[in-house]
Amino acid sequence: MTEERQVREDERAARDVLERAAETLALLGGAVLVVITLMSVASITSRWLLGTPLLGDFELVQLGAAVAIASFLPFTQLQRNNIIVDFFTTKLNPSLQALLDTFGSLLLAAMLALFAWRTAAGAIAVKEAGETSMIMGVPVWYGYALMVPGLALTVVVAVRGALQDWNRV
Amino acid sequence: MTPAMIGLMLFVAMLVLMALRVPIAVAMFVPGAIGYIALANDAALLNYLKGTAWARLSVYDLSVIPLFLLMGQFATQGGLSRALFRFANALIGHFRGGMAMAAVLACAAFGSVSGSSVATAATVAQVALPEMRRYHYSGRLATATLAAGGTLGILIPPSVPLVIYAILAEQNIAKLFAAAFIPGIIAAIGYIIAIAIYVRVKPEYAPESKKLAPGEVLASAKDVWPVVAIFFVVFGGMYGGVFTPTEGAAVGAASTFLTSLVRRELTLEKTKIAFFGTATTTGMIFMIFLGADMLNAALAVSQMPAKLADTVTHLGMPPLAIVAAVLVFYILLGMVMDELAMLMLTIPVLFPAVMGLDLWGLNPSEKAIWFGILVLSVVEVGLIAPPVGLNVYVINSLSKDVPMAETYRGVMPFLASDAVRLTLLLLFPILSLWLVRMMN
Predict the structure, then answer these.
(1) Which residues of chain A neighbour B295 with C-beta distances below 8 Å?
(2) How many CB atoms lie within 10 A of CB B241?
(3) How far is the alpha carbon of B44 from chain A, nearest alpha carbon, in Å?
């Protein structure tokens, strides 16, 4: 009995850590968007008043947006906001629905694992190639590498979700 | 087995996975990845995946999506929808059905700072729904008005689906936004007319209320000017050549943030909610992008899209009938599929086919813009049409006492209005193109 409770508490603690990690990453992504916003406003102002835009603002927007969007993915999955079509299965019994959801969550975890792995491999390849952005000379592999935490955390969140689904079967 | 056959099978596999509750993005990705291996090999797949996430997420033009979503979130948290509804209601609320009409107007105005239909429907509903029920508007009319009115969020620029279309069809976002204005206004007028006819037939749905004193109208107008100002700054700057759509979205996000701050509506907690709201919607959209890209890559290798385009152009059917058939296909597919996913999946396949047709003698750029507005309209229909209308779901969940079937019944007059508008847009491309031509 107590052991079971211990397990449950461990599970909850794990969930809390995971939830907090996903939330933190989403807020960080939001902060990056704010930086993009401020930088764009600064660039427009500079173009308007001084006749020159900020150097490389487009590149930084690209980099920032990619990192922000990847950082939003774990929270999206945590909130179960990745759309499913439930129209054909609403009449099924809840247990069978939960089984299908387990399957769906696992497939999502697999997909994101593939992306996390290949994007990390991409980061290494791009680093070795020494590719840099056109104007600022920022190494492009930074962008690849900074996307990996978001992609990887989504895998963990989805696996955790699959376990929750499985418990409902 | 021919590659085109494999392509068709991938499409079927996707539909099966979707029906089995697999998230849409994954239901596209899995057949895409397997198909890619079948058509090429696994090394090619692994190599392809190295760069796809970066290639998709770092598209400069796509960064308008999170920024416009952030702008809409700040507008929501800043209570701008309340100000808009109050003003619209003070203006026309005393007519029969006027409060519903005011809700449509508020949606249209909110749509000018929001690019998402669900967000627009939900945020205006928060203020308009309780108000309408308090004045004994029927649940059917009240919920249907907000579900349909919410679609003005995408019909009036900025518009997330239109941005996605622009990227996939490689068209100019600013021009597409310009093209959407007049059709968007026609949509709002169409909905108001639908309400006027509806309440004439069913007067018991909307009791009349008292006219406000001019002083009260003026007082409510005071809170509305920030929305007007933000709108003119964002679009004025975009069309005045001062900045790109992405920069416009950034300026919009910054100014809605400041407005909400000055109105003392924004707390730290609400800012967090705004970030989280932006995160989930952005994450959802780009996840689908990742899945759709994979399936599209496999389909491209299978050459099914090229074959389809070739077949369609040699059908010998009148071009306009083909476009109409494509739109009907979209409406049918939209019944079972998420509308954004549908765009991401089908535009790369169908767009080349449509561009091969001679339509009203339009040049390629104008043809692409006009078709984009038509596609946007059918996406909008999918958001309120049974059996699965996302907006209907969202609004219905906000008013527990109204059965879903009631809302769907109430939506019918609005769908009729959509049908009329869609026909007009199809037959008179000038409605979409006039403003674009004026700008050139």
Answers:
(1) none
(2) 8
(3) 12
Is B349 in contact with B357 (CB distance < 8 Å)?
Answer: no
Kindly determine whether residue A38 and residue B387, on different chains, have CB atoms separated by under 8 Å.
no
Tell me which residue has tokens 């308090």: B134
pTM: 0.89
> In DSSP terms, which residues pair with A132 in a beta bridge?
A139
Sign of dihedral through CA atoms A6, A7, A10, A12?
Answer: negative
Q: Is B387 on the interface with A (CB under 8 A)?
A: yes
Q: For residues B274 and B256, is the Cβ–Cβ distance under 8 A?
A: no
Chain A residues inside the 8 Å CB shell of B283: 69, 72-73, 75-77, 81-82
DSSP secondary structure, B179-213, as one string: HHHHHHHHHHHHHHHHHHHHHHH-GGGS---PPPP
pLDDT in tens, B208-257: 777 777 777 888 888 888 888 988 998 888 888 888 889 999 999 999 99
Among the partner-chain residues B62, B63, B251, the one whose CB lies closest to the CB of A44 is: B251
The stretches of chain A forming alpha helices (DSSP H) are 2-50, 57-78, 94-129, 141-167
Write the ipTM.
0.91
Backbone angles phi, psi at B430, to 5 degrees: -60, -30
